[in-house]
Amino acid sequence: MTILSDLHADIEARVQAIREHRREWLCSKGCDNCCRQLAQIPQLTAEEWNLLRAGLSALPAQQLQDIGARMVSLAHQSSRPFTCPLLDRATGACPVYAERPIACRTYGFYVQRGSGLYCHDIEASVAAGALTDVVWGNQDAIDHRLASLGETRALTAWFSEWITESFAA
User: Residue 70 and residue 90: Cα distance in Å, rounded?
Assistant: First the structure.
């Protein structure tokens, strides 16, 4: 297994354990709040990008073109929150869910408060007395493991380079 696949497996095990014991956990199919309110443009390693690019390559041309237009818009947006350019806004679903980056896999289950990278809806539920005894995962530990994969770049930068190379070929 690779470092990335090991990370995927570890994160999935944690997510499944939380979902098994906390049926009321907010992060599940149908919730796209984090996708619509990103604190920053997702940062991906080359390995993550290669996986995501494979998923994007399998999409219909029109869907990929729509994503490309949203990528360009996002790259020029200066204020938060950001909306993920991959999100199908009509359905609230991710067309490349199986290939999604670590940032997407961990959101809502891990926390990095200093960067504002945590689910404010879950925090509000905790503050209201629901979801007591919540134990967030340590996003810094995940980031440390990701750092061993090398360079990270913004999703928009990876996408732009890919499209430029595709049309140059």
Answer: 14
- Report how far residue 19's alpha carbon sits from residue 163's, in angstroms, rounded to the nearest whole number: 37
Per-residue pLDDT of the chain (169 residues; tens, 9 = 90+): 699 999 999 999 988 888 888 877 778 777 888 899 888 889 999 999 999 999 999 999 999 999 999 999 999 998 888 899 999 988 999 999 999 999 889 888 877 666 656 677 888 887 888 877 777 778 888 888 999 998 999 999 999 999 888 866 5
pTM: 0.88
Q: Distances from the Cα of 127 to the Cαs of 7, 108, 157, 163, in angstroms?
A: 30, 15, 37, 44
Structural contact between residues 107 and 62, judged by C-beta atoms closer than 8 angstroms? no
Task: Give the C-alpha separation, 86 to 49, whole Å.
Answer: 13
- At 133, list the tokens: 């005894």
Cα distance between residue 74 and residue 70, in whole Å: 6
